[in-house]
Amino acid sequence: MKVMKFPTAADAERWPWAVRGLLGLIVACLAQLLTNVIGPLHAFPVALAFPAVVLSAWYLGMWGGAVCTLAEAVLIRLFLASTQQRFPNRAPDGLRLTVFLTISILLGWAIRRLAQQRTLLRTQDLQKRLLLAQAERQLAEERVRVSEALRGRDEVLNIALEGNGMGLWVLDYERGTSHWSDEMYRIAGRDPGSVEPSFEAWQRWIHPEDMEGVREALARTLEGGQHYHQMYRILWPDGSMRWVESQAKYLRNGDGRVTRVVGVLADVTRRKLTEEAMLRTEKLAVAGRMAAAVAHEINNPLEAVGNLLYLISTAQTTEAVRSQARQALDELMRVSLITQQTLKFHRQPGAPAITRISEVVAEVLSLFRSKLRSAGIATHVRAMREAGVAVMPTEMQQVFANLVSNAIDAMPQGGELVIRLRPSVDWRDGKTPGMRVTISDNGAGMDRATMRRVFEPFFTTKDVTGTGLGLWVVAQLTERRHGDVRVWSTQREGRSGTAFSVFLPYGDVSAEPAVLTPNESSTSASVTTPSSL
Length: 533
Hints:
Blueprint: H1 9-13, H2 17-37, H3 49-82, H4 93-163, E1 166-172, E2 177-180, H5 182-187, H6 199-203, H7 211-224, E3 228-235, E4 241-252, E5 258-267, H8 269-314, H9 318-346, E6 353-355, H10 357-367, H11 369-375, E7 377-383, E8 389-391, H12 393-410, E9 415-425, E10 433-441, H13 448-453, H14 470-480, E11 484-490, E12 497-505, H15 518-522, E13 526-528
Parallel strand pairs: 7-9
Antiparallel strand pairs: 1-2, 1-5, 3-4, 4-5, 6-8, 7-13, 9-10, 10-12, 11-12
């Protein structure tokens, strides 16, 4: 059964004004009728008129209240005129009635407006609460969704890291806490959760020789804002050693202070051993090439000595014997000089030494003298304000031997090999000082695809003689000394050639490096022609 709904004041306001006026008139008539019917109300003719006007203004609006007021005024006036009832005060009845009813309608309208405002405020408050509740519900749902998404991503990240043998570590400096993934423990040879995560706990497992480097790298991250990247050794409980590589990025707060460092750790022992084996292999290859060059260089004076000894055995005069003996002695001294140079740069020192790169370059060129001469290559060496750098001489010999050998192979029909040495800075940061060596040739050059892969291991453009490790070794040895190597090349007709730029920082030197004199700096360019080679 359908229940009839009684119309509200809001519904009545939507009715036509004529309907509301008619209803106000009916209310006034009913009020006056009740006043006439009820005897005690005869002494108070406005007793029901006042609430009737107020209710009409409240429920029917201004139109209903105004019509009700006019009707009540007319009916009360007629009622007062037809009876002997009077208001007790002396004021005219009509004026008092009019004022009374006007106040009634205004009071009813005011009460209605106040009620509407109160209702509106209450409705708005309820709407705000509803919106707030809805926003809190959406926020809670979003938090749950984000939490589930983060949990899922963390699981995927952990699976990916564990699948690649990498561990995740976090240093939170604001809260003073640390976090390690389970793979971190396994990389260190420990059971997950066996030790409370902290930097102090981890550094107890670092090899003592690498401890200072790790601390300095972390300090550079915290103070200088550099991203953390370090390769070092750790010790397992059984005493074995593992190589690990750690990389991290930092997070800053509003004040620019590093608050958190997030990084990954990987076991690179196998890669490190492979690199060392490849370095030894290429070193043996370089040694073989240099040995062949030295043998070829020594063979010429030895042949001359043999010929001179034969001439001495058949000489007729003492003067001829002496002259030929002096020539034989000169050739033997040349052989001795080549042998001393070779032995000097193949003695491996235990630590980096202050070395003049121009001396290393000169020794390498002397070993390739015969090959340069037979290929018809003119060599130019220019050194400007040279200073000593802290390097391993044998490593630098290997670096420049590879670059010179490649330059010779690039100019089978002859050409020019230009080597420049000058003070410079590291182009990667513009702050680190050092020496820059540029080795350029006017050979065939390389295309862009070759330049992009030239430092990759086992990549070579030589079908038979190349191992593909030469330039990779150059990059590895240079990086080991915190240096940098770059290459430029072109194959333009008439302007082809290749240039390698090797930067070597001065390093940690206890004394001021030796610097060439001004005269040597300005006129230190030495040009060696094929005939003088």
